[in-house]
Structure formats: structure tokens, C-alpha cells
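RECORD CONTENTS
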Amino acid sequence: MNAIPTVILNDGAWFPELGLGTYNLRGEEGIEAMVAAIDSGYRLLDTAVNYENEREVGEAVRRSGVDREKLLVTSKIPGRHHGHQEAIDSIKGSLDLLGLDRIDLHLIHWPNPSVGRYVETWRGMIDARDQGLVRSIGVSNFTEDQLTELIEETGVAPAVNQVELHPYFPQEALRAFHRTHGIRTESWSPLARRSELLTEQLIQELATVHDVTPTQVVLRWHTQLGSTPIPKSADPDRQRENADVFGFTLTDDQVAVISALERGRLWDGDPLTHEEM
């Protein structure tokens, strides 16, 4: 398996092009699954207060034996912790559970627009970064308008916006906004949970063309869009498969036709080759 490449965020920090989602990875089995992922080359672990597994993530980091500076831990502030001081207190609580002296990337999990305190929360995160509690700060599930408000009110653009993104929902306009403002896109639900995505004839045929699995086709599509997918798996073999997507390249036309699945532009079933795609 090729090493997972990294990119540089708008604040100068490094960030992997693919990471591990840890939702529902809890207890000793969850720790072992995360350690296995790190052993396989994963360097980004994505957790959140609401996942109730920050303690396990921290323990996996310690057990892995990998230099702490080579691992990136993400956590998130829940909606109930919105506000300036509340955000700082939430980060400190996450640090206590993780057992770490710094969170590498901290996100606002949800803008919680009915409460309308996400700008205050963002200011608290900026202060937490300045205090050295976190290295990078970002958001999750924010729209263009909400991102614009954060930038205009504080002058600080999020390093990352983690959003639902997959071939049925490619978020083209939002990704374009991210590129304009130097915000890294991160994909949750990258395989479109509880959907027929991996059985789409197009995805199956492209897997055959590239001699990879349908899952690998979709995850490679994410990375070539410039987004970091964070697939979740507790199975070591599946973890390795998910991360082994940097040894082949989709053509621009192949990326485009996968993105067109959102618009219902169904593939007509003709044989696909590298040249035709």
C-alpha cells in the first residue's frame, strides 16, 4: 500500500488526503481497530464529543507507538457547547478525555443556526488556537453563507469544512467556494451510506478497468476532487483496502462521469476504457 499523501492547510499545517472515521468505534474493540488502522498507515483519526469515544481515540494514539507529531487527531464541538467560553471549555474537556496536550484539528460540528452563536463559538476557537490548545480550527456542515459570515466577522477562514459528500451529492458549488478561500474539503459519508452507490454499473465497470474495488474507485474520486474522505471501518483488511487508493489515477472524464451520478445522467452501459473515459 502506498503511503497516504498529505496537503498543506491554509494555516500551514499538514493534513492527510484520507483519514479514518471513528464513529461507533468504542471500548477495547474500538481501540484495537484504531491501532490497526494506524499500523496500516492512517495518520488522521476523526472523532467528536458526540461520538463518545474520545478516550478510546487518545488511548489508540498512545498504544500505536507512532510519534505523536506524525498523527493528527480531530474532534468537534457539539451544538450544546456553542458560545465563546463554552467552546474553550469544550475543547479542554475533549483534551482531558483524549489525554492529549493538543488537538490537531478542532471543528464546530454543526452551525446550529436556530441558536445563532456559531460566530461566538468561532471566536472562542480562535482564542483556543492562540492559547495552543488546538493547532488548526475548522467547521463541519457549514454553508457558503455561514462560512462567509465567519470570515467577514473574524478575518479567519476555517482550515477545513467537513461536509456530506459523495457521488450522489458532489457539492460542486461549495467545493468551488472552498477552493476560492483556501478551505480544505473533508468528506463524511464518502460512500453514501445505505445506498446502491457501490453497485452502480458505472462504478463496477471503472473498478474492473482499474483492477480495484468499487470502494477504491469512489474514494479515489474524492481525493482527486481535492477532498479528504474519512471512511469508517473496524476491519483491518477493509481499512487497508480503503487507504490503498493512491496507486491508480482516474482520468478527468472518469471523475466527471462519477460526479454526474448526482444528476441522474445514467451511464448507457457501453464498455468503458481509459481512452473512452
In short: The first helix runs from residue 27 to 39.
